[in-house]
Hints:
Elements: E1 2-6, E2 12-16, H1 20-32, H2 56-65, H3 71-78, H4 82-92, H5 101-111
Antiparallel strand pairs: 1-2
Helix pairs in contact: 3-4
Amino acid sequence: MIITAKLSQGKTMAFDLSSQRDRKKIMNLIARHEPCHEPKARKPRRRKNSHRQWSPEEDHFLSDRAGKWVVERIAAQLCRTISAVRARASDLGVSLRKNRPYLRLIRQSKKV
């Protein structure tokens, strides 16, 4: 079987599919051939550090309310995510656990 192929330079070539050498030529041409479909458009990449910087006022607010308010309420007040508030509290060395001194008294009384 003989086929003809139109090459990108405007040339046409005839290939004999029964010939091993011609089949290799065809495979090489196919491998080098650019795809006939349009490539998919890529989504724009997000900036690596697209987060908002923490202001000193927000740091002060977080430090004051940590342990008094729940994390969800602090995050809502600061318009930040819960994970962002937790990460910033960790960076500042602030504990977000509720201060409940009565629990300490209960634990101490059970030990005695």
